[in-house]
Amino acid sequence: MFRKHGRGLLDFLVAVLCLWVAAYHTPAGALARRLGAWALDVKSSVRPLLSYYEGGGDEFFIDKGPLQLPPQLAQLRGAVPDGSALGYGAYTAWLQLSGKERDPGRQLALRYGVDASRMEDPEKGPPELVKIIRAAKADLGTDDAAMLALMCGYEPARYARDRARAEGGSAELGVMLRQLPPEFESRAIHAATGLTLATAFSLAWPVPESTPITSGFGMRPHPILGERRMHTGVDLSVPTGTPVRAVAGGTVRRASQDAVNGRVLVIDHGRGVTTAYCHNSELLLAAGARVEKGMVIARSGSTGRSTGPHLHYQLSLADTPVDPLRFRPLRPGSSTAVELAHGGVDGRPGPPPPREAPPRVKRPAPEARR
Amino acid sequence: MPRSTPPSPAERQFEGLVTAISRKLAGFRWVFMPLGLVALIAVGVHAAADVVDDRILWLVDHADALFDSLVGRFQATASWVDLVGLEQRVKIARSVALVWELAADIILCWPALGYRERDARKPVIFETSLSGAGGFRQLLRRLKARPTTMRVFRPLAVGLVALAGGCAVARMVQGAVYLPTRGALGDGPAGLLGRACALAALAAVLYTLGWRATLRTLQDADVMSDDGHPSAAEALWRGLPGTLVVIPLAFAALAGATPLLSFFR
Questions:
Q1: Mean pLDDT of the B232-239 span
Q2: Is residue A266 within 8 angstroms of chain B, CB to CB?
Q3: Adjacent-strand bridge partners of A273
Q4: Cβ contact (<8 Å) for A166 and B259?
């Protein structure tokens, strides 16, 4: 019957269906929507075109611009107990949701018997989120699914996880997001943010924590070139040959040598977190190698554009360099907690941090570029 | 199979309604059919680009490392190392993926925009007089007799990305049906309904648009291959750059973006 009489209707419905999917799931569709919004003079909610692609191990799309980190991040980071990074990352990302967008998280709290009104409390919120996320992870099996449940609701997360597994892939956030209808898109971005911050909260430090910092993150006069430049990492004063350790597990994305960075290693930790280690005297791994947290990956040195032995350590979240000190493993009340409280917000330089200790070299050890 | 009993009045009324709507829509087929074909190809191409984008990042990383090591050897060019920062590589890789995808969109969608038909059941693809390229059987005969680069690879690429596009559409339909109905129907029935709708959507996409996109591309490739009566060597070279752009994506679509079995699990 349909073949004979309804062919035209079927063709129309299928064409509309394809246009709907193309509009929300392709960069070409995003371009068309943006053009439409511009022509109609309405506000566009279209994702940036480049966010439709992966940036490493995971599909990942934090909105461009500085991450909106809460002012209490310094204290927050110092207080993250072992094994609670996921919950603290979830809390930090959850705070960025507007009122109604928080409903799935509140429902998740009710599901696990947690008082939802305490979730927004600066003191009680983080431990409550830790409880919720742990319970969701126990049910759903992965960090990514638990974070998605907090932002989009338990059932959409469970469905997306099951579909992702049915496709034969792992239940990573990027794969799960492809399974959900477009209305979940904006909240899913916060899930990506939460996972990124959770990974950043769990980072170790590449050299002994007592190592002096000779140059902080932010704008500074370049010690060799003389001009003011953005210093996109921190310089850690260590003698040549000091073991440099991976701050988290991941994959070596780059192991190379050049005239500026010297011998450099870049490690992709997944979820949009990347670390770089420059000016080494020796690299112990090749590109593509898997690393575990704490593994010795290089020996420090003074190769490239450098005036003395040091390690340039750089942390990038969502392709944006951030101050590594803001994600340094600290205990509350330590001397560097004070330093953190004075630090600038990511991507924007703050007041220069006080020196922890006098530098070991006469001239401040510079980083190369970047 | 022909019906043994005449349709009931209610069935006749429904058929009449569907026929009336189809007739009304027939006046707009010239716009929604090409747009539907373009949308299907765009969805499939993006699904394929999703498969290869992390490999592009790997390539960009290696290319930049090689470039830095080369220019860093000489004092005069050492500062060129600064041209691409660590954080910029991801943007470059994503930009390459975007440009690649849009280029493939243009190459594969262009013939679809020329899709025409006299009525719903008779696309111009099948007509000798309007296409100027011969009917469907002549197209296949020429493909077999003179398999040029465009005749072989362009329809193949469109067929594969259309399949990937169909899977992406089906996936969206499954989620859009299951999640809202789960509360009312319960998990099991909503799951079955979602799966059935996904499979129906996949079948409908391939039945209505998939084959049209593939054959329209074959028709266009056939015309392009013979335009100006090129020699056999010229016909092989013709369209090669565009084919090199789309073929990796087509095979990526086949390898990583056609999870047909997932709708049965």
A1: 82
A2: yes
A3: A317
A4: yes
